Amino acid sequence: MSLQTTQLGRAVSASGLLPETAKYLLNYLFRHGSALVQLLPTEKTGAGRIDELRTLIVYACLCSPEFAGRSVGGTRDIPYTLKDGDTRLNLQSDTTRLLAEPTEPNRSRTAATALAMRWMEGEPSRMLETVGGGISLGAMRGLFHEIAWILYGLANIAGIFGSHPRLSADGSEVVAMRELAKRLPRILRWTAQRIEHGLPDDVLWMTEVESEEIGFRLSRTDIRRLRDHGIRSPIDAMDENKQSNRKKAFEGALPSPSAKNNTYVNAVREWKSSQRARVVKKHVKRASAVLDPKLFADYYDARKTEFEQALEQLLKALGIDVERKDNSSDKGADIERHRGYADYLVTVPDLVPFVLEVKTKEGDGLVGLNECKEVISAADIMGHGDKPCVTLCHPGYDPSVPPSIIRSARLCVVEATSLGEALLRIAEGHLTIEELHRWLTTPGEALPSELPLSHGKARAAISP
Question: What is the pTM of this model?
């Protein structure tokens, strides 16, 4: 007899969740997949009922064997004080039937779910301590950290489950589960980030703003107050006309609101550019062991048409086929035929092709939402209206993009450094092209943290 590992088994193991928890949550998703998929945001229905979907899944996590209590084999407990907490969940009558377990016998779990949802919206911690039956801030943060950890694990498992043989059959339930498995992972990860930080979608990016040199980092209260005073985007953060708003948000700060405002503005300016510069330097150094490092250097240094040429050279070296569609060298009738096309059609044997559009900005400029979405209409013009769409942004995209594209069932956005990390792992033999395809064709924001953990050499490393 021989034992074989599976992708799903590896995902469960890597998640750190109890196997019983993974089974419980997957069964929950499969049982209610047809109804849950109706809550997803779409281009036609707008935001959908995403908050209800999040509520249902957070409640399912809290009802899982993971939270059964350490005394009966669980790995974590729900704070005892929540038995007296507010148990009101913001669910419509038609979605209450989708709750993983009845709420009345599970008051603590219900109260924990309600608390987590209010925390995500940025409510002050003192107010939440009251509605949570007197729960302490430390206990709250510990609970939210554990919920987020389960959501991250479930996101990884759900993404792999989408390619499970069980979902290859026909039938409305299976089709719904395939759609759910395709779109849910990045919704779960985004939800986990919000629960970790206790902030709404539009200001979550501020949690990354920091200055290591002077030890500057915004607190949750700082970010909440900035939002209350109309500071929600990097443009707001650097707008001279909103300087008084920022100073009001930093009222009481030491040594002065003006000094903290100046530090904040400078930190936002340098935030992504310094982070990317460090990544680029590491990538070029790593590449020298498996590829011609000039391929990566050209990839990061170039812009516009030169960047597309550098990308093509890098993909060719890795054995990835791309078909140029928007060819600037076309003449006459060919120009008319290809007008409005996306840049590339990427094909991987035995997998669905995807449409790739490249957007670049000079210096530290960022690609905006409308530019990121252009690939969808371009794919439709090309006759690929049913294919996944990817926008590659160099050097990056505006922080408003990820929460804004959550309603799209087809669009993925990826920054040049994130794709660079994935391509480097392929060259090193730690990622397969099939895994790259799944990463890029999952709707939402493609982050390096989502790439599968290395499980031995995925393929022979490419000789330099």
Answer: 0.86
Give the model confidence (pLDDT) of 342-398 as tens digits. Answer: 999 999 888 999 999 999 999 888 999 999 999 999 999 999 999 999 999 999 999
Structure tokens at 240: 């001279």
Q: Which amino acid is at 303?
A: R
DSSP 55-116: HHHHHHHHHSGGGS-GGGT-S----GGGGGS-------HHHHTT-SS-SGGGHHHHHHHHHH
CA angle centred on 40, ends 82 and 49, rounded to 5°: 55
Tell me the residue type at 398. D
Residue 298 near residue 313 (C-beta atoms within 8 A): yes
- Helical (H) or strand (E) element with 28: helix 19-36
Task: For residue 69, count other CB atoms closer than 10 A to its CB.
Answer: 12
Task: Count CA atoms within 13 Å of residue 76 on its CB side.
Answer: 22
Q: Which residues pair with 412 in a beta bridge?
A: 390, 444
Task: Note the Cα 212 to chain centre separation in Å.
Answer: 25
Pairwise CA distance, residues 216 & 260, whole Å: 9
pLDDT digits (tens, 9 = 90+) for 146-166: 999 999 999 989 887 766 556
10 Å CB burial of residue 131 (0-12, 13-18, 19+) is middle
DSSP letters spanning 231-283: --SHHHHH-GGGHHHHHHHTTT-SS-HHHHHHHHHHHHHHHHHHHHHHHHHHH
Burial class (CB in 10 A: 0-12, 13-18, 19+), 39: buried
DSSP string, 296-319: HHHHHH--HHHHHHHHHHHHHHTT
| Cis before 349 (ω within 30) | no
